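Lecture notes, unit on protein representations.

Consider one protein chain, 522 amino acids long.
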Amino acid sequence: MASSIRKDDLMALHEMRLGEVKQHLEEVQGRDTTEVLAMVDALQRLAIKYHFEDEVVAILEALYSVFPTHGDLHEQALCFRLLRQEGFNVSLDMSGWLNIVNSMANAKTLGTDDILALASLHEASHLCMEEEDIIEQIGETTARVLKSSLNKISDHDQADFVRHTLQDPVHKSLPIFTSKNIRDGHILSSNYSWSTALYDLALLDSSLNKFIYQVEVQRVSKWWKDLGLEKEMEFARHQPLKWYMWTMATLTKPSLSMERMELLEPISLIYVVDDIFDVKGTLEELIIFTNSIVRWSPDENLPEYMKVCFCVLDNITNEISSEAYRRHGWNPVASLRKSWGHLVEAFLVEARWFANKTYPSSENYLRNAVVTSGVHCTLVHAFFLLDEGITKQRVDILDGLPGFVASTATILRLWDDLGSAKDENQHGHDGSYLEYYKKEHPGCSDASARAHVKGLIAKEWKKLNQECLLSREFPKSFSKVCLDTARMVPLMYDYDVDQPFPLLKELMNSILFGGEASATQN
């Protein structure tokens, strides 16, 4: 009973702080532009912007009409980043900005004493799109200067802020997964009267959301146990908490609890089916299994464990389709089945490579691995679980492999292939872009090959920014799902030499259990 009283008290305080922050947002709009931008930035870093989406859009719309062409670099770079992140078309030829980037590209206007301006410019560079080499140069220049500044900064908080800027740029990170963002957001806004109200709201938000996540974790564990696949398929990975973290990343609003639970189901099956192809099935069995899923009719010659898997897959697909139809009036069963068909066909391509001991080119490997990543299958399910303007045109686009999906999938696959620890102690077949690239380039060092892969990831982020921030083919909220999937990738594939996922385990412990329990799953 004590916990329920505590929760009620927290909710009352939370409601009060929400009102205070709303009032501060109204008041700040008549003040200095730098303060307005600082407050919007703080809301984002503190992971509470979702409470004030309409207010933030109104503020940025007003700023967009009078984009600052004068003033300090920090203000202009921050304005550029916040506007682009919200989908405003801030182009390089907008008055004032081109002069800034031209002067910054020479790296002669800033010294290490301009830390805030350097950090803001570096953060802005991560919003780079295709054919914006000058912004990319700014990112490289500011990174170099910020790194060198770490040896000269005596203030501990400022040094931590610089490290966080370099390691976890705001645009490419998820605030709910990085507690340091709360600290940075508080430090950056501490000179303003509204800072404490925002900070208190962020802490209350985090505490209340933890109640939601803990309930969801219990449901996840029960669902996976009741499903029975752990007994039927001992060879496969059984990591429902890890898979649940994907849903926290892609569907971040606390109110989307039901959708997170639903999306967990296909994500879990993607991992199981992957293990069937990589660890257990013979090529002959995998061909029959693939044909069964493509036709969506189980072959009588399937091994028993494959029949069980197909039955679970069919049940999950039908349940999600029924729910989507009930909520949105659109039955997505054909699209969901098609996404599974594409996935297993790509898995089978890999299985044939390994069975025949043939080595694809790195380009062919990556083209197929974009599908085997499971991103397309996941995002198709996410689209239909959300009420995000389902139309035939959008469904047709999503049934293919649109650019924003391909870029997200490429980022995931390349990050995974950079891993230095073997995933989950699996002993099955597994390919790697890094491996195939080095085969094609004899004498290429591991460091050079890894630099090449990181360059490819940077190019895909440019494409993803272009597709998700400026395109209007899909609603902004669904574009955010795609961006958040890419943002989760470095956390999900944070390998080290001794074990996979050390950072992910730490995050699971902090967010889900508050340090009181240990996330022991590998």
